[in-house]
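Hi R.,

Here's the input for the adenosine-5'-diphosphate complex you asked about:
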Amino acid sequence: MRTIAVINQKGGVGKTTTCVNLAAGLARAGRRVCLIDLDPQGHASMHLGVETAGGADSVYQVFSGARTFDDVRQLAADNLWVAPSDLDLAATELELVDAPGREYVLRKALEQSQAASSFDYVLMDCPPSLGVLTINALCLAREVFIPLQPHFFALQGLSKLMETAAVVTRRLNRDLRITGIVLCLYETGTRLASDVTDDLQRFLSASDPQAPWSGAQVFSTKVRRNIKLAEAPSFGQSIFAYAPGSPGAQDYGSLVLEVLAAERAQRAAAA
Ligand code: ADP
Ligand code: MG
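And here is the predicted structure with adenosine-5'-diphosphate in place:
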């Protein structure tokens, strides 16, 4: 099972869009996927047509201990489960402040889940902050994907994010590695976008080989700005269902292939 947290402390960089469409694409490729929505805004849940408005439970109940992980996950499509979130989850940041072991609540919940062992992928969509919800994702994950919008300040934010991941790796989860950087909302043909891409490659290759981000891959897929990607959430559909012929579906389709290729590489390395 691959456990991947999609993080960036900035909002609007493409975390949810990437998490949802990657999850949907992997499920279409036959992998059993569970998306855990850890953002109280619940955008990933809504994007996949999963709502908690009718009184369904959310990951909030998992954090509060009222429900198990298996109680709250819902089937969203073939091979694709969602553990939904809603605004209740905003309270978790406060409720867990002094709780012992607060960083590992989600990890424990997954360890106790019957279903979890059948997933090939667990993807976590994180809120735009580095609070306790994101830390829970980082304590469960072995991999981190960082969506980045290529602009001038992106790299500054990235080093902060990587330091946080390094602290988590040292103190809380030795298995954690930043494995992928996804360029989102990419403006093809602009100088800035290609400059940022080059800077990013240079930064990664100059990094300490012991750092948790050494060996991170900047995916060759660059997700172009495409209006269909912005429209799909309001229809409760992934890009593959909503606009299968769109550039957005092409880009996330090729990202899925790169993620699957990494799976083969990992298996080969382990053998
Ligand atoms: P985050 O989760 O990091 O806040 P989102 O994935 O929600 O970011 O994206 C922010 C907004 O940009 C959303 O309205 C989303 O639909 C839109 N969006 C994301 N990626 C693209 C893209 N490649 N092209 C066009 N719109 C996009
Ligand atoms: Mg989001």
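One thing worth noting: The first strand starts at residue 2 and ends at 6.

Cheers,
M.
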